[in-house]
Design a protein that fits this description.
The protein has 499 residues and is an alpha/beta fold. 30% of the residues lie in helices and 14% in strands. It is built from 12 helices and 19 strands. The protein has helices at 96-108, 120-123, 134-145, 174-182, 215-229, 275-287, 324-357, 382-387, 399-407, 432-446, 461-468, 487-498, and strands spanning 2-3, 9-10, 51-52, 64-65, 71-72, 74-77, 83-85, 91-93, 113-119, 149-155, 187-189, 195-200, 238-243, 250-251, 364-369, 410-414, 450-453, 473-474, 477-479. The strands form 6 sheets. An 8-stranded parallel barrel has the order 6-9-10-13-15-16-17-19, surrounded by 4 helices. Strands 1-2 form a two-stranded antiparallel ribbon. α10 (432-446) links the parallel β16 (410-414) and β17. α7 runs parallel beside α9 (399-407). The termini are far apart.
């Protein structure tokens, strides 16, 4: 390493090229003074600014109001167990009467719309290219008749392993899982061979393993069918389309399993051990002239529940993330994820182009990233690195993400909107506010919209005041997983905007 003129640490490999995805030529270093690897950085509390916008700032029901009296539309996500598979194997909407009553209650509470996950595993469930949209036709009709709008999340992942899903959840299409039964390498794998079957590995993006189609072709065909089916709803009932890019719909690797293997605040593990990802890594290593670097991820990066101080790769040293090998691997690992996003968003933008050019049917294209805020106040940011965000105290890893989103006209959606630095365990060096501030900065730089939602249910006035204060430029907010039992809390939100 070398010392910068301002006293900062400069990684000697910052000038290296990235792999599979070539980033714009600009400095990757942040203007930070040198800090120890595992000490707290200055708090960003009180300096957070958020921007969240919709495709068109229309006249909408007021639920929250900023100090400038701008209306903030509120969207509510469907319950995680809104759908089920009946005894005959057919997807159904659960508790239809209760859902109808809930929609009417939410409308009365001032909610503007509903966020709906459109599951690949429901629509193309039984065989390739056999799309059944009947469930969503019924649901969109029900929402529209309640006077609410719709935000759609095209979900190419599974939620079977979701801890909050008590009714089995929705798997990937059955014909996909049948392929997976004979070839586990279509899913992400960790160094111990454990497979996460919630999402296809990006290593199969361009391989015709799915009845003659590549994974990217499967996603493109699904998006095309959706738009054709609901063309009359786009721009009127459907105001936003979010395209899934990974586990939980987020652009990331499944480095932090939620099914009991990983526990907060573990650093997670690198997910690059399926044979297709390994083939790509070996190719990149050979191109670099270092074939020995293509055997897998760093062997000294700890385990799912390790702390940064116990994993040499995230510390200083010859075999750390700052080494030539460390820079090579992280550039390849994050670059593969960026290439995955670039390819899918390019297809989505092309499909939606005519609607975005028409002011009458203008619709917002959105993509999600994970809110990985623990260990953010270290130099290495290990939890972000294992998730695929090459973001450290020395390198802005979210600017390349924002650059891709900007290229395709997509807004950036992030969770953890309700979290504050002072409410997280001090020893875990968390900074949700710092993460959101960084995302706001790159979104402003790349001129893209930043949309937020909460991760946990929260309706206290401390949080609402935080959202409502004059330093928070919030134009759109999604409330996660609210149910019909929360009507009173939604009225509390309404009361805050009237103050």
């Amino acid at each position: 390493m070398a010392m910068a003129e301002n006293g900062g640490v400069v990684c000697k490999c910052t000038a290296r090229r990235s792999f599979r995805f070539r980033q714009p030529k600009h400095s990757n270093l942040r203007n930070l003074s040198r800090i120890p690897l595992f000490t707290r950085r200055p708090s960003l509390a009180g300096k957070l600014t958020l921007l969240s916008t919709s495709a068109q700032e229309k006249s909408r029901p007021a639920v929250l109001s900023s100090m400038r009296h701008k209306k903030i539309p509120i969207y509510v996500m469907m319950p995680v167990d809104a759908f089920c598979i009946d005894g005959s194997g057919i997807p159904r909407i659960r508790r239809l009467k209760a859902l109808t009553a809930s929609l009417k209650a939410l409308k009365l509470a001032g909610v503007h719309g509903i966020a709906v996950e459109v599951w690949w595993g429901i629509v193309e469930r039984f065989s390739p290219l056999a799309y059944d949209w009947s469930l969503y036709e019924k649901l969109f009709k029900l929402i529209s008749e309640s006077g609410l709008k719709v935000h759609v999340a095209l979900s190419f992942h599974s939620n079977v392993n979701c801890s909050s899903c008590t009714n089995g959840g929705v798997s990937l299409p059955l014909w996909i899982t049948q392929i997976g039964d004979s070839n586990k390498h279509i899913y992400y794998r960790d160094k111990n061979g454990f497979s996460s079957d919630d999402y296809l590995t990006l290593g199969v993006d361009n391989l015709p393993l799915f009845c003659g189609r590549t994974a990217l072709q499967c996603y493109e065909d699904f998006m095309t069918s959706f738009v054709k089916k609901f063309e009359s709803h786009i721009g009127s009932v459907i105001e936003e389309i979010c395209v899934g890019l990974g586990p939980s719909g987020e652009l990331r690797y499944p480095a932090h399993f939620g099914d009991g293997i990983w526990k907060f605040p573990g650093i997670g593990e690198f997910q690059c051990y399926d044979k297709y990802m390994l083939d790509n890594l070996k190719m990149a290593a050979c191109e670099e002239g270092k074939p020995q670097w293509g055997e897998g991820g760093p062997p000294n990066a700890g385990y799912y529940n390790s702390l940064p101080s116990g994993a040499p790769f995230f510390e200083e040293g010859e075999e750390s993330f700052l080494s030539d090998y460390g820079c090579f691997f992280l550039e390849w690992y994050s670059g593969s994820l960026l290439g995955h996003a670039d390819a899918i968003l390019a297809k989505a933008a092309k499909i939606l182009k005519k609607y975005q050019e028409d002011k009458q049917t203008s619709i917002l294209l959105v993509a999600k990233i994970g809110g990985i805020y623990w260990w953010y106040q270290t130099v290495a940011h290990p939890a972000e690195l294992t998730a695929g965000y090459y973001n450290t105290a020395l390198r802005d890893g979210y600017d390349p993400v924002a650059s891709i989103f900007s290229r395709h006209g997509a807004a950036l959606h992030v969770s953890c909107l309700e979290m504050m630095d002072g409410e997280t365990p001090e020893s875990y060096l968390c900074s949700p506010e710092g993460l959101l501030q960084q995302l706001w900065s790159v979104s402003k730089k790349r001129i893209i919209h930043l949309i937020g939602r909460n991760t946990n249910e929260r309706f206290d006035r401390v949080y609402l005041s935080f959202v409502h204060n004059s330093k928070t430029k919030l134009h759109l907010m999604t409330v996660s997983r609210i149910t019909h039992t929360h009507r009173q809390q939604m009225h509390t939100i309404y009361d805050v905007q009237m103050c």
